[in-house]
Amino acid sequence: MSVWQFTGQGSQHFNMGRSLESNSVFIEHWNLCQQEAMNLNIDLNTLAVDANLLNETQYSQPLIFAYEYALAMSMLDSYSSPNCLIGHSIGEYAAYVISEMIDLKTAIQLIILRGRLIGSLPKNTSGMLAVIGPQEKTLSVLNQLNNVDLAAINHEQQIVLSGALSDLDHAKKELKAKGMKAIMLNVSHGFHSHCMDHILDEFHHHASQILNKTAPSEIPIISTTTCQPIKELTAGYLRDHIRQPVQYWPVIKKLMNNHDTFIEIGPKPILTKLLQNDAVTAQWAAQASIHADLK
Question: Which residue intervals of 148-196 are DSSP H helices?
Fold first, then answer.
């Protein structure tokens, strides 16, 4: 039983997709994304080779989506469909299209809206802090901190916190005083925290207008926001998806009960590395040498 997992923000890199230029199915579907994005004045081809702009949230999110959608369509063309889909934060948007809950045009509109609104928030005033250590100990410290939110549970030994930079600096000192390793992440905003609150209502308003038609999922998607199967895609759910923490590890632990293969669809093998020490087969789809094993 296999799971396809779609990588989130931070996986983008210069020239992403260049190694897949010989893959005609990938290029065909990348070009479909390019056409839809150009209708909204986003040039994916130019952004993918601009080392500065591709790290801007308003551009990195549609770039990651296009890459993952195109790679997943290429995988579907050559290999068996997965039994389940999950996505880490924005990675979930590619899953919506692969499972046929929404069409490509709708997904592009939503992801560009999402990236534009988050990108409009003040930069470098909030951030994210990765904490390495026992989950229970990290959460215990978090409960004593003000204005710092749980942003993601990536592993039983890795949690990400989010908030204003000044508050995170205090959190870092508190965690280190308790023997925890804490590392500031190179991000422009404090994602999945109260720092997103200012754009939530506007996102919900526009997303409600974009989501004219949705369908039941053809391939089950387990939400990393609710840890439950997504039965219906709504503007309200997508609003919460911006604000609430990414419950990646709880979902993975649940899926490990009846799935043994996890294929990462993304520009970098970030999630694959998180699973390397666990009793499952974790592979990165973009690495051509493993394709023979993806049955």
Answer: 165-177
DSSP conformation class of 288: G
Domains 2-121+193-293 and 126-184 share a fold: no
SS3 246: strand
**Residue 108, token pair as written in the block:** 């592009």
Domain chopping of the chain, boundaries? 2-121+193-293, 126-184
Structure tokens at 133: 């250590």
Residue 276, token pair as written in the block: 């390397």
pLDDT digit string, tens, across residues 169-213: 999 998 998 889 999 998 889 999 999 999 999 999 999 999 988
In angstroms, the first-to-last Cα distance of the chain is 10
Q: Which fold has domain 2-121+193-293?
A: Malonyl-Coenzyme A Acyl Carrier Protein; domain 2 (3.40.366)
Q: CATH code for 126-184? A: 3.30.70.250
pLDDT digits (tens, 9 = 90+) for 166-178: 999 999 998 998 8
Cβ neighbours of residue 52 under 8 Å, at least 6 residues apart? none
| Other beta carbons less than 10 A from residue 177's beta carbon | 9
What pTM was computed for the model? 0.92
Residues paired with 263 in a beta bridge: 4, 283
Strand order of the β-sheet with 126-132 is 148-155, 158-164, 126-132, 181-184
Instruction: State the Cα–Cα distance between residues 167 and 147, nearest whole angstrom.
Output: 7
Dist. CA 125–CA 84, nearest whole Å: 37
